[in-house]
Predict the structure.
Amino acid sequence: MKTVLHKAETRGHANHGWLNSYHTFSFAGYNNEERHNFGLLRVLNDDTVAAGMGFGKHPHDNMEIVSIPLEGDLHHKDSTGRDKIIKQGDVQIMSAGSGIQHSETNANHDKEVKFLQIWVFPKKRNIEPRYDQKTFSAEERKNNLLTVVAPDNDNAVWINQDAWFTLGNFDNNAETTYQLHKKESGVYVFVIKGAVTINGIALSNRDGLGITETETLSIKADSNTEFLLIEVPMSFHN
């Protein structure tokens, strides 16, 4: 087993007033030679957007972009004609493919919106842009691993990559095991809140841990905790 640990306080940080963003990997003005990606996971941004503010229309191509709201509501509009509100409990994916423009703004004028924005390199390039969004109840991930993004699961949103996103919300001392879908893949663990031990490594709020060369993860909650597992190929040839 190989690991790379990214403690929360070592992340890149940019506060633009309307946007307060923490970057696990190099992004925009944050460039860390040792943190460009984890396999095909390219971006993991922990964003807080002020009331009524947001990202104006901008282009993307050939990237799988996942948004997971943690608090508040996010208003998504794009050039495919989509105009949706994404709420806590929702997971949205946009396959930028051959090219798409979109905007993301705080749908509320009286409170912040907090969300994770995650980019994964695609399996097939220049596909027709597509969009998917589903709602998952908190009960579905209570002391349970819930797959929310997958290439092969009708209950999850579809991704153009051999990648699986799994959410867990565990009570203190609860334990479970995660089985990798592909032994050559890696898993990036991100702790949304609380504390958890993964394969003997203790993690706390907003810490990240990349794990490779293992087929299973042993998971033990050290407090009431919420976390995200992102399984991705480690190269374009996996």
